[in-house]
Amino acid sequence: MLATLNEVMKVAEEKKIAIGSFNTPNLESLQAIIEAAEELELPVIIQFAQCHEPLIPLALIGPIMVEAARKAAVPVCVHLDHGETLEYLQQALDIGFTGVMYDGSVLSYEENLANTKKVVEMAEKTGASVEAELGSMGKRESGAGDGSGAEDETKIYTDPELAAVFVRETGIDALACSFGTTHGIYLTEPKLDFDVVKNVRHLTNHIPVVMHGGSGVSREDYRKAIEAGVRKINYFTYMDKSGGNAAAEYLKGLKEGEPIFFSSVSIAARAAMKENVKAAMLQFGLLD
User: Fold this and answer.
1) Contact (Cβ atoms closer than 8 angstroms) between residue 76 and residue 34
2) Structural domain of residue 83, as residue ranges?
3) Known catalytic membership, residue 81
4) Among 81, 159, 221, 240, which one carries the catalytic annotation?
5) pTM of the model
6) What interhelical angle do 219-228 and 194-203 show, nearest 10?
7) pLDDT digits over 262-284, tens only?
8) What CATH number has the domain bearing residue 167?
9) Contact 216, 189 (CB under 8 A)
């Protein structure tokens, strides 16, 4: 069933858990995520990042995401991840997305604030919820770079006091905070500052905090983050990697001269992604 970001965040707050938010830049990942959520009977967020536009256009995959959410047996929020322009966010809202994230983290505070206010006004017209970002995790959603995170000098940790002003003046529904995570694959263990999350929550009347760069975080750090107030965890890299590994294993198992069918490769990738998503959802729901 189609749900807004606010609706699934309410469930997360009541249960003191985090809801998994997974990117769907292809049909296989979309099917894997919905099937995993239905088997576990947990709410889920399916999202599409603007940087994935070269993989498949939002205009093509977006309506499919909305229809899949409507038909699902569990609450599903259809969310735009890292929308960088107001025009792109409007496109998602027109398609029927029930949540949008405006990423103005590379802009000045004043520009980020002004544009986020505009996004909130846009979303109010369709009943969608709004996530915004304050601070910077360095690398963009595509995960470009070495993935270590620890040496990324472009990181800017979220200032809780500034976050309180930002949340109050924009009226957003969820806030992506920078507290040590990084998009992509970690080559060194991330050092997370959970006090940032706790202080943001305290000063903003417990706004749902979003963790970006959720792949590769340890089981214990997931638990600490959720206990600190993280209510949405973005997760894509390791899911995508599991699909790639499964495809490679399938190809290795073929006999010499045996034909390679893309449909068979995609089935193997989808099955692996589904299991990876299920494991992540269990951790985020503190059910593992």
Assistant:
1) yes
2) 2-284
3) yes
4) 81
5) 0.91
6) 20
7) 999 999 999 999 999 999 999 99
8) 3.20.20.70
9) no
